[in-house]
Every structure is written in C-alpha cells, then in structure tokens.
Amino acid sequence: MRTFVLALLLLATAPLVSAQQRIERGGTVFLTYETKPAEIDLFWKDASGERFGQFSKLQEHLRAEGRRVAFIMNAGIFEEGGVPSGLCIIDGKILHPLNLSPGAGNFFLKPNGVFYIDARGAHVVTSEEYAKLKPHARLAIQSGPLLLRNGKVHPAFRADSKNYLHRNGVGVRPDGTVVFAITEFGQPRYANLHEFAEFFRSQGCPDALFLDGDISRMFVNPGDIPPSNYFGAIFAIAPKVGDAPSR
C-alpha cells in the first residue's frame, strides 16, 4: 500500500512534459511542438483585408482579443505580397484556391500536398488526393514538396544530397497528434529534405509536409515578438488569457 501511495505522489509532483522538444538527429538539431488539431488556428489577413505578415502584428491582434500566443509558426510558401502559392482555407472559407499547376521550385516538386483539419481531425495528403476528397476543412494550407505519405519518403529526395538548409514542416501521427518541426536556427549543420522527412518518420508521423525554408521561424510561449520576417499565412495557438492549451 505504501508503495502505491508513493507512486501516486511521484506522479502528482512530476513536472508536466513540455509540448516543445529539442531533438538531435544525424548531426542536426530539430525543435518540435506537439498539439491537438482543435488548438490550431490559421491566419492570413485581418478584418480590413490587410495581411498580418509579421508574427509581432498577429500577436498584437490576438492580445487585443484577450488571447495569449502559446505557439506561432509560418504556414507555407507564398508569392509576392504574401499571397499563398496554393490552397488556403481559414474558418471554413476558401481564401485562395488549390493549385495543381506545374512549375519550378519547392512548392511545385510533385507530389506536393495539403495539411488540413476537418471534423475528423488533422491530415496530410497529396494535392491530387485533396482535389478528389473535397473535404469540409476548417483550415487548410497547401505547400510542397510532400515529405512523407503513408510512411514513404518523397521519391525525388536523395539521402546523399548536400542541400543542407533551414526548414520547417508539419506532420500528423496516426492518433491525430499534430507535430510541427523546424531546424534550430543558426546551427552549423541543417538537414537535407531526405533527412527532414526521415525526422518526421522518427517522430511517428507517416504523413508530413514541407512548409518553407530560410525565413522560417517558430516561437513557443514568447514574450513580445520583435518585428522580423514577413510571411504569408501563419499558424498560431492562442488560448484566452488564463487558459492553457490542452495536452
């Protein structure tokens, strides 16, 4: 009985595991943030139609609504003026259409894909799959290339590639947990795309999507975020002040 009571006390006093982790793999340091789909919001423009662009501006907007930024990350490749390169859905509204066109650059390295959240949870699928599924998404962002689909690495990636760059992405575990990941900024060695895909697989994600490269940033429970890079759409988790994101 004493052993059982002691075990309960240890569980009660043990620190909660943070949603953010710092993980070294293959000579590269990755930062991850795990969350539930219901916690995630996607932002692009304010009520006047002006894009938020910077994390600092979105933080000010959320504070005015009585919300606190627990997590923030840029949400995908965009064109001049911050226009998403492909699909963007916010609060169930299609703000920019699905893009199935050919082209050059990461976004168009087929298969590219869509991260979306609907009533069933979070998903990463190819853009072509999304076009056939036509889900009723609460939010969605299209980017490319797709890192993983059903556990398989994108066929164009090479394990021996020397294209070591700063990157961020998002993956989904079979239990529905969403895993955001970014290479730690300023380190000596970043990851190639094959290594980035393998990292998501090591975190239990059979499906994952590349979001963007050099300009990418992630903040967890930040103080005042200084003005910095300009982005297109932005992911944020921002509970009401006094509340905490559920785990």
Structure in a nutshell:
The protein is α+β, with helices and mostly antiparallel strands and 247 residues long.
Report on the architecture of this protein:
This protein is α+β, with helices and mostly antiparallel strands and 247 residues long. The chain has one domain (19-237). Helix content is 16%, strand content 30%. It has 4 helices and 16 strands. Strands 1-2-13-12-14-10-11 form a 7-stranded antiparallel beta sheet, covered by helices on one side. The radius of gyration is 18 Å and the shape is globular. Mean pLDDT is 92; it is low at 1-17.
Observed structural traits:
247 residues; alpha+beta; five-stranded antiparallel sheet; 30% strand; globular; disordered N terminus
- The pLDDT mean sits at 92
Q: In angstroms, what separates the terminal alpha carbons? A: 30 Å
Structural class given helices, strands, pairing? alpha+beta
Spatial arrangement of strands, main beta sheet? 1-2-13-12-14-10-11
Radius of gyration: 18 Å
Number of strands: 16
Order of helices and strands: HEEEHEEEEEHEEEEEHEEE
Percent strand: 25-35%
Shape: globular
